[in-house]
Give the backbone structure.
Amino acid sequence: MTDDAAIYRAQRFGQASGLGAAPALVIVDFVEGFTDPAHFGGGNIRDAIAATVPLLAFARTEGWPVVHTRVVYADDGSDAGVFTWKVPALKTLTEVSPLSQIVPELAPAPGEYVLRKKGASAFFGTDLAGWLAMRRVDTVAVAGCTTSGCIRATVVDSLQHNFRTICLTDCVGDRALGPHEANLFDIGQKYADLMTGAALRAAWAART
Amino acid sequence: MTDDAAIYRAQRFGQASGLGAAPALVIVDFVEGFTDPAHFGGGNIRDAIAATVPLLAFARTEGWPVVHTRVVYADDGSDAGVFTWKVPALKTLTEVSPLSQIVPELAPAPGEYVLRKKGASAFFGTDLAGWLAMRRVDTVAVAGCTTSGCIRATVVDSLQHNFRTICLTDCVGDRALGPHEANLFDIGQKYADLMTGAALRAAWAART
Amino acid sequence: MTDDAAIYRAQRFGQASGLGAAPALVIVDFVEGFTDPAHFGGGNIRDAIAATVPLLAFARTEGWPVVHTRVVYADDGSDAGVFTWKVPALKTLTEVSPLSQIVPELAPAPGEYVLRKKGASAFFGTDLAGWLAMRRVDTVAVAGCTTSGCIRATVVDSLQHNFRTICLTDCVGDRALGPHEANLFDIGQKYADLMTGAALRAAWAART
Amino acid sequence: MTDDAAIYRAQRFGQASGLGAAPALVIVDFVEGFTDPAHFGGGNIRDAIAATVPLLAFARTEGWPVVHTRVVYADDGSDAGVFTWKVPALKTLTEVSPLSQIVPELAPAPGEYVLRKKGASAFFGTDLAGWLAMRRVDTVAVAGCTTSGCIRATVVDSLQHNFRTICLTDCVGDRALGPHEANLFDIGQKYADLMTGAALRAAWAART
């Protein structure tokens, strides 16, 4: 994307929004169904889960608010929307389905917000923005999957809600690497700063 | 993206949501600043504007609700958000700036909704969803720019609001073709049906 | 409120928005905890439940989309907001609490949307607007409790989302009759048409 | 409302949410059309404007973020919603109408956010929540009119967005006093703390 990058640079896209004073960690859809290529998984998703483990531990040590999202549809399909017409397998993600359970290595701790959602964005049709505002969060660090799906949508909404947003490049994964890379490009140019989980930890440690 | 496409096919992504009974046309950010590579333009944006001209004429003939969006920030920057930290030039798009005026070949007609927005999505922080619901729209056809920016964000939100969504492949444009193509792939797999403007016109004509 | 009503009349408030072509019935928070004065109940709430029974039967016969809301907070209080500071007992309304179960005479049928909410409005932080838009609803009839709380908030949001809104005067109830009456006045002047459940059934029957 | 108040007290409504560390002042619809009983005015609205003057001066001295809202519809009525069916005169409030100009004694200063809205709530269909979150506001003090209309709706949404909310009893006004009082009762019980402008200034001064 050399030439593509040149025009973004010429137009002064891709400036940093930076790390603020009050971060939160939002982990999107790291549930069993996204670890298995027979369902929604594949690509580098398992690697991203592994990279998120030390980040979650760090967030807890630092007392950052932590959110875990799950996709959950009603058993009777009464709340299925047009998204399920495009991607019918979404309807298998019900409250008790094994596919919709958060992976054990990232199991939520008490007080962390387990947010049920039906859309791509963790903010859409939920009260996430207010949950973060109540905690006076100014920076949202995003991990999870998939980069080209719910991560992209969540990052765009996080920015639109006026949170400085950090997309953790090694803590987000996708079933296919082409879209993963393409979306990181868009995200970095327009919506969020790109950092590894380790870089975020180091930046925060250096600051405090 | 052959291999990438294979995993999406195996997981049954990319089904059609289809053309409903009541379409609207949403034209995103075809304003002067996006026609000029010295500002936000470049790539295939001018071609996309040209392709949208007959589509807009068709929508008017058929009586579809029509929306035109503009990015508009206050002169004093009082409403500038984090988006303007990532992309500082956005702040040049004020109410009276020549850069923020809709291109003359797509000038709004009376009764069409000229929607001011500050985010990427035409739905974010606006009353667009309710404007469409009031007209009992069930299908949103999206033209405009840029494919990797405000089109992508608008398409995702249109789906999340439960409108069948159609992304008009030749009526959307971007300053760079790599992101344009990559985003059309994502959009078609997950959020909207991909059609040319001519194909949409033909499908509608065949239906009625 | 004679004099009060006069100024509203002089300023031409209180016009009818009318009954459209596609109604839905939204039943707000008719759960056990609101039937008991020891928790959130009292006043005319039990009467309002009784009046809603034939309306729900009618809605089902006519095939109207039906929504039932429940207030549900997480067991660990992780999602409690400022509303629970003003009204601490809200936190008792958890997924399995007897207080948060829909009353048996209005038990949801399969396919009806059981919507969990934490705010006053059934639309806030939920996907209700899109659920209704997907069904091309143009009129929202509101039953439930309390008139001065979640009914008022839901009615205002229903109007803001551009649904014609009907507040069913005998199918909404409140723990105290002063606020019940005062809110019906405001609602009728600004946000919704006031009808009894029987009048709505008659109006619909006369129409079809 | 003695008996009414008793049941609210028994059910532990009406707790204080308190004054936080970072307030903002939101002044709702103090525009010319609401000062004139021939349009939307009457009652105690002029008194409320007068009481807001020293509060606005105080907010500026303290550096609080300040928002002024105006109701603004398009000249051609293209964006008129169902609200204008209930209250047709709303459509007279256009960008250049004298009725929609902020009263001179509360004229906005540079950097203060002049927010155009079409709904009752200042938050609905706008980016106000994100504007406040970006400034890490935790408390929203609300002045303006009318108590039974846009104040009530704004206060409810402010709470739902998880801002501690303060309704300034002498800085909010209504065309009719019955609804003014009735809404203050509801607001104090469920959504916001009730304080005079002077009491808020004193509480803030005592704190810092």
